[in-house]
Please model this.
Amino acid sequence: MPEGPEIRRAADEVEKAIIGLPVREIWFAFPSLQHYEEVLTGARIERVDTKGKAMLIRFDNGYTIYSHNQLYGKWYVRSSYNYPSTNRQLRLAIHNEKKSALLLDQSFIAGIGNYLRSEILFVAGINPAARPIDCTEEQLKKAAEATISLVKQSYKTGGITNDVKLAESLKKKGQKRSAYRHWVFNREGEACRIDGTPILKVQAASRRLYYCPTCQK
Ligand SMILES: [Zn+2]
Model:
């Protein structure tokens, strides 16, 4: 995750590529932003500011694009229209005659270990069959927060994604690590730690997913 100096370095690189020359084409992945493509085409970029981990691209017609890399986003600066071959998804592209600045992102929860996938969905209260479009804003927000907090916690604790205090008390009671480590993963038929419902296991695209049918309706 880029922090202060890293984001400034990235901003310097983007700024150098896109400042001055008029924007030949701009492309947004998000449909809600696409009507700005026309507004920003032909405009010039005056500078690129950073604020915390965000980048602010200032246009000479008064508009600013605010972008945040979150955990998995990355800016690529390339010669004009020279797209890199990558599994990442394009979110934003700014082209001028010489250069393209591209914001690429890994897809949601891609590249995350099997156990984290199940654990994140449980913490966010999302049914494993749900697509992102089926989720409420609140659920997506919870999933984003759980992704960050569980990845951090798992790193710090060596793989414990269960509530840390609960895991500690279960450990004191003599439970094995495999029994206290997770909320739902590898716990098929065991009682949900919240409401006692037996945990179910499903197979999705050759991946095992575990969930509580009550907490994750
Ligand atoms: Zn439950």
